Amino acid sequence: MGFVKEFKEFAVKGSVMDLAVGVIIGGAFGKIIDSVVKDLIMPLISAVIGSVDFSNLYIVLKGEVAANLALEEARKVPDTVIFAYGNFITVAINFLLLALAVFMLVKGINSMKRKQEAEPVAPAAPSKEEVLLAEIRDLLKNK
C-alpha cells in the first residue's frame, strides 16, 4: 500500500501537473507553429526559391531515377541510394521558427516581469495599531 500512496502523492504534486499542462500546451503550440510554417512561410520561401515542397528534394547517390520523380516513388526504384535532404530543411525551418517563437514569448514575459518589479509599491495604509502607537509616541514627545 505504501507504493500506491507514494505514487499518488507524486502524481498530484503541483510540479507534475504543471509538467503535464506544459506538455499539452507545447503540443498545441507545435501545431500552431507547424501551420505557420506550412501555410504562411513555406509558400513565401517557395515563391522565391521556386520549389513548392521541400520534402521532395533529394539527390540520387547511386542508381538511376527518372527526373522529377517524387521522393516516395524514387525510393521504390531498386538498387538506388537517395540522399533526401528536403524533409530535413523543412524540419530545421520548423525548429528555428519554434525556437524564435518561444524566445519571443519568454522575452515578452521577462519584460512584463521587469515592468512589474519596477513599479513602485504604494505604501500600505498603516494599521490601527500603528496609528495608535504613533499617536502615543507624539503625545510622549510633547510632554
UniProtKB/TrEMBL annotation:
Gene3D superfamilies: Large-conductance mechanosensitive channel, MscL, domain 1
Keywords: Cell membrane, Ion channel, Ion transport, Membrane, Transmembrane, Transmembrane helix, Transport
Membrane topology according to the record: Multi-pass membrane protein
Transmembrane regions: 12-33, 40-61, 81-106
Location of this chain's protein in the cell: Cell membrane; Membrane
Gene Ontology terms, MF aspect: mechanosensitive monoatomic ion channel activity
GO CC terms of this entry: plasma membrane
Family: Belongs to the MscL family.
Function statement: Channel that opens in response to stretch forces in the membrane lipid bilayer. May participate in the regulation of osmotic pressure changes within the cell.
Subunit structure: Homopentamer.
PANTHER family documented for this protein: LARGE-CONDUCTANCE MECHANOSENSITIVE CHANNEL, MECHANOSENSITIVE CHANNEL MSCL
Protein name: Large-conductance mechanosensitive channel
